[in-house]
Amino acid sequence: MSTIRKQSLFSSAIVYFGFLLGFVNTYLFTREGGLTKEQYGLTMTFLSVASIFFTLASFGTLSYITKFFPYYNAHLPRRQNDQFTWALLFPLLGFVVVAIIGAVFKEPVVNKVFNNAPELPKYYYWIYPFAFGYTIYAVLEGFSWFHGKSVLSNFFKEVLFRLFTMLLIVLTTLGVIRSFDRFIHIYSLLYLLIGLLLLLVLWRMDVVHFTFRVSKVSRRLKSKILALTTFTWSSTIIFNLVSVVDKLIIAAVLPDGMAMAGIYSLGEILASLIQAPQRAIVSAAVSHLSEGWRAKDLGRIGRIYQRSSINQLVFSVAMFCLIWLNFRDALLTFHIQKDFNYAFLVFFFLGLTRVLDMGTGLSSQIIATSTSWRFEFTSGLILFTLALPLNYLLTRKVGIYGPAVSGLVAFTVFNAVRYIFLWRRYGMQPFTINTLYTLLLAAACYLLAYFAGRDHTGFWWLVLRTTIFSVTFATGVLALKLSPDIMPVWETIKKRLGLGSKE
């Protein structure tokens, strides 16, 4: 667990620094006098469509990497290892197919469906280079996790991408980039840039090799590979559509759709802060889970399950409370465009969904790397069946809040199904008494900070509420020893500060 803890802590620090940059970018996008709601919504929609493109084009490549990398690595010399070749080649071929289909259906589908959001049809083809870079980067990132570069891949994705975006916003604001058209043209190339940088790093490590000769491992495992990738591809398509289709439904259904998508995106981005540690923990833990299943070490997998649950819950519930405490005051204090106040309840429902998902631990990764990986498709189908129609119906009925409410309902059922499956099949479950203590502690600290700063606004009141909650919650976490992974870190900090007990 120490390796996972070390990598996930480093990655978490990078991810949160990246989110700090994302906050700055969001402010630059949404402040009075910044870019319009429609322009902000368009850049966020680029990410959603690129994610759909990659999911359709990938043929389940990431599951192929995470499940079978240990077998290729254990039985083949590096230069005869053909996994990288197939893992990159098939998504690129798939992207070509998806791009052609997307071009064919632009006129009869995209132009007609998104007539409430004319910005999307206008810049539609600039999504192609953005999605192409996204596809390359996703594959390279999967390999970087298995070569000890999860921290670096997180840095490129969470920090470098946002730094480049920030530079584009600043240059556009200063008039150096003279039009939004030019902004989008450059923005569409950013994932290609960081993808090439990550490829260069892996190439210099001598872990990237192209060989078109089918290895003995590929021949022996081809039926299992095909079965796995087919099922996980299907489940990933379902899960991804549920995760990103909300903005597209808003843009298509609501009047002034792209502006509404921009407002929704603010709540979504703030909610994603809650889930930031999950990315780091997943990237650090997935290789250990894969190896644990190969070695049939259920005890090790169970420990990762429980520790990931409590670690993620501590982070997520704290972040939810901090944002909820300061949401309206922050919009007033930093002069965000008034229409973004509608994102308040969007964040509330999306935030609860993220806390729920974080608190159930790495259930998805545990199932995906196990011999029961087919259940990912089954649970994904349940999610899809609930979420998509509910998303559309609630968007028509309650407007911008519809997708957030439908997501909370659907993901509650989805996570309950996976929890029951792992409990009954393998005797694993992520919760302990510390789960309850964490929730009660967060509620008490929230109420204390809320009543201390109620009915007051301004920068220093933001600081006061944040300080009260952070200090009391952190003190409670340490005093109650809620996480076995936080305590060693705290002891190290005390020693370096000279606060440790002297013998």
Automatic annotation (TrEMBL):
Keywords: Cell membrane, Membrane, Transmembrane, Transmembrane helix
Record's GO cellular component terms: plasma membrane
Bilayer topology annotation: Multi-pass membrane protein
Regions that span the bilayer: 9-28, 40-65, 86-105, 125-147, 159-177, 183-203, 224-242, 310-327, 339-356, 377-394, 400-421, 433-453, 459-480
UniProt subcellular location: Cell membrane
PANTHER family referenced in this protein's UniProt entry, alphabetically: O-ANTIGEN TRANSPORTER-RELATED, PST FAMILY PREDICTED COLANIC ACID TRANSPORTER
Protein name: Lipopolysaccharide biosynthesis protein
